């Protein structure tokens, strides 16, 4: 973990801020590129995880495509220099102006999540005099065995079109003249640590693709989404996620002929290279005996613990004094759920100490808000120190 080694340098920066280890980001990108090249797989970066300009410039150097979830994310990717032909755009509710923009950019595919959306893309493409490449985002009804708040591929989920509905409307979909159905897309959820789940996913995809092609569809690619989890518990043990295992599972279980296989990784690319650095403002003990460390960050910088009950490992990077005391680390926001973690073992923690909240590079800054009119946090990059 970078911050522990450069804690004295960090003291001078206004807290809270995100610290990014760009060397680790580069190693992670090297790994994903190396491992995916073994099978000819194509990797998109899910820009929702973190759209920081400095990080995007690095990610672009490694030739990844982009997965985006809104018109503004698409615009951001295009402005950051990513080739529109390598961009996919998913999202359960796309506004007409967002669809018009995507159509005008000629992206790799709009991943459509309802029959109605396919019809609207067809109509808007006709208006623009275009034929738009789309993929069918299919809900495969798979339990990804992750936090229920972040699963996306179970039957009842708002994401994707049910396979049955695609079958029912197959003839109608094929009759649309201004969309070209070039792919199948699915994404079963995020922070998946039990990789055998992806075996089930592959088996379902095999059936879906075979049956739909039997009905006359012809797909150029299958995009199996993202979801590879990271080690929030002990990030030092696994700074780079296990891309090799996931690719090997997909290689061994996906049976779709020579079609392109695409992935959309967010968390696994950027989570571990980011830490949220925050300063201890006050210590106090509740009437019930809980020792609180009140820090100057809050759910406005990192909402994952408050929103999903997610765990992030926390360390006092400026104290050397061991203690058996346990701390509940709370933020400044006017919300009772604004708690980073309870009963944390930290070195003796005093006003002014810096804490690192680790593995915060994904869905940290990109989900930050200005609640309580907090300022948005800054960013410090290891290659600029
Ligand atoms: C459609 C889609 N693709 C890719 C991702 C990226 O997922 P992850 O950050 O888990 O790799 C998400 C987020 O879960 C998503 O909804």
From TrEMBL:
<comment type="similarity">
    <text>Belongs to the Orn/Lys/Arg decarboxylase class-II family.</text>
</comment>
<dbReference type="InterPro" id="IPR022653">
    <property type="entry name" value="De-COase2_pyr-phos_BS"/>
</dbReference>
<keyword id="KW-0210">Decarboxylase</keyword>
<dbReference type="InterPro" id="IPR022644">
    <property type="entry name" value="De-COase2_N"/>
</dbReference>
<dbReference type="InterPro" id="IPR022643">
    <property type="entry name" value="De-COase2_C"/>
</dbReference>
<feature type="domain" description="Orn/DAP/Arg decarboxylase 2 C-terminal">
    <location>
        <begin position="17"/>
        <end position="361"/>
    </location>
</feature>
<dbReference type="GO" id="GO:0009089">
    <property type="term" value="P:lysine biosynthetic process via diaminopimelate"/>
</dbReference>
<keyword id="KW-0457">Lysine biosynthesis</keyword>
<keyword id="KW-0028">Amino-acid biosynthesis</keyword>
<keyword id="KW-0456">Lyase</keyword>
<dbReference type="GO" id="GO:0008836">
    <property type="term" value="F:diaminopimelate decarboxylase activity"/>
</dbReference>
<dbReference type="Pfam" id="PF00278">
    <property type="entry name" value="Orn_DAP_Arg_deC"/>
</dbReference>
<feature type="modified residue" description="N6-(pyridoxal phosphate)lysine">
    <location>
        <position position="48"/>
    </location>
</feature>
<dbReference type="Pfam" id="PF02784">
    <property type="entry name" value="Orn_Arg_deC_N"/>
</dbReference>
<dbReference type="InterPro" id="IPR000183">
    <property type="entry name" value="Orn/DAP/Arg_de-COase"/>
</dbReference>
<dbReference type="InterPro" id="IPR002986">
    <property type="entry name" value="DAP_deCOOHase_LysA"/>
</dbReference>
<protein>
    <recommendedName>
        <fullName>Diaminopimelate decarboxylase</fullName>
        <ecNumber>4.1.1.20</ecNumber>
    </recommendedName>
</protein>
<keyword id="KW-0663">Pyridoxal phosphate</keyword>
<feature type="active site" description="Proton donor">
    <location>
        <position position="334"/>
    </location>
</feature>
<feature type="domain" description="Orn/DAP/Arg decarboxylase 2 N-terminal">
    <location>
        <begin position="41"/>
        <end position="271"/>
    </location>
</feature>
<dbReference type="InterPro" id="IPR029066">
    <property type="entry name" value="PLP-binding_barrel"/>
</dbReference>
<dbReference type="InterPro" id="IPR009006">
    <property type="entry name" value="Ala_racemase/Decarboxylase_C"/>
</dbReference>
<comment type="pathway">
    <text>Amino-acid biosynthesis; L-lysine biosynthesis via DAP pathway; L-lysine from DL-2,6-diaminopimelate: step 1/1.</text>
</comment>
């Amino acid at each position: 973990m970078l911050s522990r080694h450069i804690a004295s340098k960090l003291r001078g920066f206004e807290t809270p801020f995100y610290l990014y280890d760009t060397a680790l980001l580069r190693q992670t990108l090297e790994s994903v590129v190396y491992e995916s090249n073994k099978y000819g797989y194509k990797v998109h970066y899910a820009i929702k995880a973190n759209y920081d300009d400095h990080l995007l410039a690095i990610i672009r150097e490694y030739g990844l495509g982009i997965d985006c979830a809104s018109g503004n994310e698409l615009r951001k990717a295009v402005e950051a220099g990513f080739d529109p032909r390598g961009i996919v755009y998913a999202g359960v509710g796309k506004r007409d102006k967002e669809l018009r923009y995507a159509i005008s950019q000629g992206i790799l595919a709009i991943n459509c999540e309802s029959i109605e959306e396919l019809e609207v893309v067809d109509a808007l493409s006709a208006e623009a005099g275009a034929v738009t490449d789309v993929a069918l985002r299919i809900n495969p009804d798979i339990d990804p065995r992750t936090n229920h708040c972040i699963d996306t591929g179970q039957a009842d989920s708002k994401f994707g079109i049910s396979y049955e509905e695609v079958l029912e409307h197959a003839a109608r979909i094929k009759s649309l003249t201004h969309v070209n159905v070039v792919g199948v897309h699915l994404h079963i959820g995020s922070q998946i640590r039990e990789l055998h789940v992806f075996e089930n996913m592959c088996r379902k995809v095999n059936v879906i693709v075979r049956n739909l092609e039997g009905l006359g569809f012809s797909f150029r690619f299958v995009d199996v989404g993202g979801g590879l989890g990271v080690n929030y518990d002990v990030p030092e043990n696994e700074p780079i996620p296990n891309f090799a295992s996931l690719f090997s599972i997909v290689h061994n279980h996906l049976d779709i002929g020579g079609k392109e296989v695409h992935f959309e990784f967010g968390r696994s690319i950027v989570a571990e290279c980011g830490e949220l650095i925050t300063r201890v403002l006050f210590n106090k003990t509740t009437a019930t005996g809980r020792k609180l460390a009140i820090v100057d960050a809050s759910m406005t910088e990192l909402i994952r613990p408050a929103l999903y009950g997610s765990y992030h490992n926390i360390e006092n990077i400026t104290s050397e004094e061991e203690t058996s005391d346990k701390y509940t680390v709370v933020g400044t926001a006017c919300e009772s759920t604004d708690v980073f973690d309870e009963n944390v073992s930290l070195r003796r923690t005093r006003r002014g100490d810096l804490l690192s909240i680790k593995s915060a590079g994904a869905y940290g800054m990109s989900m930050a808000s200005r609640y309580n009119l907090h300022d948005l946090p800054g960013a410090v990059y290891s290659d600029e120190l």
